[in-house]
Every structure is written in structure tokens, then in C-alpha cells.
Amino acid sequence: MAALRSYVNGDWHTPAEDGVPLHDAVTGDEVARVSSAGVDMAAALAHGRERGGPALAELTFHQRGALLKSLASYLLEHREELYALSARTGATLGDSKFDVDGGIGVLFGYSSKGRREMPNSTVYVDGAVEPLGKGGTFVGQHVCTPLRGVAVQINAFNFPVWGPLEKFAPAFLAGVPTLVKPASQTAYLTHRLVELMIGSGLLPEGSLQLVCGSVGDLFEHLTDQDLVSFTGSAATGQRLRAHPVVAANSVRFNVEADSLNCSILGPDAVPGTAEFDLFVKQLVTEMTVKAGQKCTAIRRAIVPAGLMEEVVDAAKARLEKVVVGNPSAPGVRMGALASLEQREEVRRSLKALLEAGTLVHGDPDRVEVVDADPERGAFLSPLLVRCDDPDQPQPHEVEAFGPVSTLLPYESTEHAVDLARRGRGSLAGSVVSADLGFSCAVVLGAASRHGRMLVLNRDNAEESTGHGSPLPALVHGGPGRAGGGEEMGGIRGVLHHMQRTAVQADPATLTAITGQWVTGGPQLFTDVHPFRKHLEELKVGDTVIAGPRRVTQEDVAHFAEFTGDTFYAHTDEEAARANPFFDGRVAHGYLVVSFAAGLFVDPEPGPVLANYGLENLRFLTPTYPGDEITVTLTAKQITPRVGAEHGEVRWDADVTNQDGASVAKYDVLTLVAKRPETQE
Ligand code: NDP
Predict the structure, then answer these.
(1) How many CA atoms lie within 13 A of 51 on its CB side?
(2) Pairing state of beta strands 498-505 and 139-146?
(3) Which helix (H) or strand (E) holds 256?
(4) Ligand 1 atom closest to Cα of 258?
(5) What is the pLDDT at residue 621?
(6) Looking at the predicted structure, is the pLDDT value of residue 679 above 80?
(7) Distance between CA atoms of 129 and 127, rounded to whole angstroms?
(8) What ipTM, to 2 d.p.?
(9) Distance 213 CA to ligand 1 centre (A)
(10) What is the topology classification, in CATH, of domain 262-470?
(11) Residue having the nearest C-alpha atom to atom 8 of ligand 1
(12) pLDDT in tens, 626-644
């Protein structure tokens, strides 16, 4: 059997030795061999930094986002092939979809987040401009630029597709090349995934590399610009985090490790309620999906002491229906563990758990298996443990990484929170209850030891994604034992791969650096009204000043009557005067904004297609009848949309009165057409 090749330095590298055999989790047959012998780790890292990084740096966030979308669509077309290989890891079709479709979903998720929430440029601006001097000539802003290193990912065996993709997507969007090192046990599936990704021809050379086998001396060559994202056992995570090169170079090191996730049943959720059924169903799902080899699976099911018997009976009734066997055989609900070694590991962990409790379902040494040899395949029955003394340490410390969960009783809300916290840091926890008070107390009480908390009840069950499903838009990771890291979590997952730098300068310099107009920056005045310019003709800083217009008492009275907004401050002189903020009747803020629009628009049909909103609107000074207002509208940010016939233009609007004081400030958001000949 040929050993898996690594993809490094722009080429597929065949190992310099036969390698270690990897076995089919179902049949025990050899699937592949793995070795990284002969891979030059230093050269691979250098290739990423010198080829991949610069190639990505030439693309804007939107272009990288568009590539992620194309890549996701390409992988979708090949997913059947990935499912077939995934079955050899012991996964059922449902499990494979969780892994493969979930991973592709992360690519789509980051693609759309990148194009919606990031600018179409290479610099990401973080937060508002901070005034640093009274005169407005010295200001500060945070900008994020990609680290000029390689995002090294060291992955666990349980998600050979989702694992690499969930880390690749945010790194790629940030502009940082990736080097994937899959867990050996299931490396053949990640290997095929990377073959497809490279074969798609979509990715710039050097932006993705693969090392199958051990990492060799890779850690010796890490620099301050590289990152490591590790998923696996806490022991390995701790060892690698303490590597002298990691410490000396302050290498960003993210760990996602053992997690004793809990699910808590509310006291209201007695048998017969929707929540009782949801709890039991979710528990059994989490025990059996991926044969329980999920970092987010429920390890501790915490239930009201008075409901222990009922929960045991209901869970057993469901578990008895779980058919174990060859994942390709019809009717099979749960496949095999990833390897025979993994099964031994789970049996060892179960033994430790049984020092504190008793087995109420399953037998670790015997399982009825459909269409497979129970000994050659890594099969195990679902195993439910009951521990009546929840103060025993084992359930809160031993992670049996398989179809294993422990039921623990609680006496009060505080007790439930205390038990949840005893996991000493978890990726995910859930509360199943329709009692808002209980759910709030548990979420807020346990949150500081959780990366994610799910509340499940009859109102959200239909749409709920469930306890065990990380989502790219939300934090995945957790404190303490779970590793102390954060993967994904929307744009913050991208920013993890970037350096945030405070730039202190004058407005013109800051405008040039960020590509976004900063108050006090240069304004451009031309004979052509900015609303008559297509996207390509507009420049950041293009400005129109319009007005003045006098606001009269009749205007205010008419606006009040016309809109129905007869709030006393606009209609009752005496009452308005009694208000601490006003010296009499004032114009409506919305009237000021409407007049401003009436002043700055160029009314004829033209490239401006629509106004789709205002942001950051603040009314700063009251406008009294008799005041004269002037508006200054400046193009602040121009965002062409890849593949669209238009782009977005954000305008800075500053409405001032006759004394030059700002009465309203806001951003106007518009859609502006590209020139017909450049429309893609
Ligand atoms: P390991 O920690 O042994 O391996 C995880 C990854 O680290 C693999 O890619 C492995 O590669 C690599 N690795 C191991 N040793 C080194 C080293 N010295 N230097 C560099 N890389 C190294 O975990 P396992 O995959 O064996 O899983 C064991 C346990 O981890 C599970 O039983 C479970 O408890 C926990 N786990 C937790 C997860 C979570 O997210 N909470 C997810 C998966 C597992 P190789 O395979 O080539 O050795």
C-alpha cells in the first residue's frame, strides 16, 4: 500500500519510507500508510511565507471570499467521494455529512461574512477613529494586517474534513497561508480533501500545504509571525504549547482539547413535557453521532435528583433502538470508532468512570453488530453510566471519547450550576428547560466556564441546530480544560490571524493608509456632483456642500402634523422650555435629516441606485426655528461588489448650523452603479 503523499513546496512529496499502516475502522483492512519522512519542514514554512502569503496579499477580502465560495461549490460536487472515504473511518452517512457538509458550510459561511462584513481591500479597520488632540489634526485608529507567517493546524482524528476547513477558512480570508497536519488515524480522508482543493486550481500556490505523518522538526522553525491551532488531547496540547520556540517567539497558539460538556435538564421538564423528550433525544443523539467522538458531545447529563429514574428509563428505551454496525448497511445508526486503539482508550476511560458509578446501558466488551466483524472493526455499544454521587471527581475529569455519557443528579439550581462548572472549562453546555428563570441562572452562572451555551425548549426546538453543532458565525472553543482558545467565531476568527496596530497620525495620512475618509482628511470638489459619478469615477473624499436652508416654525408645525410626531418638544413652547436640554420648541431630528437629504441629492436619474440606510446617527445640537442648516456630504468608503453591477458607497454626512456647530452626524449608505462597460 502506497504511503500518503504530502503537499509541500508546490509539489506532492512521496515519503522516503514505507510508513505506518492505517486501518479501515470497519473491516480492519489497511487503507493507507503514513509518514512524513523526507519532508523539509523549514522549506515548507518558508514556501508558505514567501509564496502563499504574498499571493494572498494581492487579493482583497472580497476576492478571497469569492474564492472560498468557488472552492465550497467545487467540493460540493465531489462530496460523494468524500462520504465514501469517510465511511472507512467508521462514519455513517449522517456522520459523514456532519463532517463533510459541515466543513463546506464553514467555507460558504466565511465567504459571505468576508464579503458582507469586511471591506473590499487588504486593510481591515477595527473600531472608530479616536480623537487624540483638541484641533482634530492628530487622530488614532486600529488597523489589522495579516501576519506574514503560516497558520499551522494540527488536527484531531475525529473531523478529517470539517477540522481542516474550519481553520483554513478564517486564515485564508485573513490572507495567511495554511499548513495542515491531520491526525494520522484518519489522514487518508484529509489527504483526499487537500488533493481536491489543490486540484481545483482555485487556490494561489503556497496558500495550502499538507504534511501527512509526524511534524518532525517543524516547531523548531516557527517564528513570531506563524500561528498554531491545535485540536486533540490536553496532554499533547500542553506539551506543544510549552515548546521553547513557541514560548521564545510568542507564537500564537490556539488549543482545543478535552472537554467534559454538560447538558442540564430543568426542574420544570418532567416526563410528558416537550423539554423532557428533547433532553433525552439530544442526549442519545450526542452519544451516537460520530460514535460519540465529538469534542462537543454531552459527557455529563445533569438532571433533577427526583427525575433520575425517569431519565434512565427514557434514555435506555431510546438507546436500545440504536443499531450498531457497518455504516454502509441499511438501518445502521452508529458506526465504528476511528480505530481499535481508540476503542481501547475508551474502554480504559470507562473503567475510570465506573469507579464512581454503575453502567445502566451497554456492555464495553460485547456489542451486536450488523454486517461487520465486531472484533476487526472498532465497534462499541453506547454506554450510559449512572453516578448517584455527583461529587465524585471522575465524571468531571475523565473524557471517554466515544459513545459514553454519565447521568448526574442535582438538588438545586445553584447545585446544577456548580456541577456544570466542575468541568473546569468546556466547549459547549446546554440547558433544556422552558423555565426562563432557571435557564438564565444556569447560563449566566456557568458562562465563564463555557465557550458556547445552548438553551433548548419547545419554542426553538424546530430550528435549533442542537448541542453539538459549532457554527462558523459563533465562537467555537472554550476556556480552561477545553484549551483556552477560540476558533471561528465570525470575523474575530479572521482577526486572530492578523496583527492589530494602532496608527496615530493626521487625518490625511490615516485616510491614505486605511482607504477610508477620516474627518479632517482631504476633501475633493469637482464640477460634477458626486451623485452623477459611477463607482469607478468616485474617489474617497469626493464632497458636496449644500445649503443653507432656513428651518421655520411652519416647517416644524407642518412636519409634526404631517407625520403625527407631535411630541411636546416640537409643539408646546412652554413644555419644551421646561425641558433641561431645550430653550423652546425644537425641530424634529428627522426633519433635519430629511432637509439635509433634500439639500444634498442630485435628483435626476443617475448612477446612485438606492439609499439603503443610515448608520451612527447622532443629533448633537438642537435646531431651533430660524436656524439655517448646511450639509457636507463626503464619500467615506467605496466598496465595489465582486460579480455585481453595483457597489456600496458610505458617505459621511455632517449637518451644521449657522454657527458652524454640528447638529447631526451620520453615515449615509447607498448603492451606486458601476459603469455599464465595466459591469461584471
Ligand atoms: P493527540 O493529542 O494524540 O493528537 C492530536 C494531534 O496532535 C494529531 O494530529 C497528532 O498527530 C498530533 N500530535 C501528537 N503528538 C504530537 C507531537 N508530539 N507533536 C506534534 N503533533 C503531535 O490526540 P488524539 O487524536 O490521539 O486523541 C486523543 C484524545 O484527544 C481523545 O481521546 C480525546 O480525549 C481528545 N480529543 C479531544 C478533542 C476535542 O476537541 N476536545 C478532539 C479530538 C480528540 P498523530 O495522529 O500523527 O500522532
Answers:
(1) 18
(2) antiparallel
(3) strand 252-256
(4) 41
(5) 98
(6) no
(7) 7
(8) 0.94
(9) 12
(10) Aldehyde Dehydrogenase; Chain A, domain 2 (3.40.309)
(11) 183
(12) 999 999 999 999 999 888 8
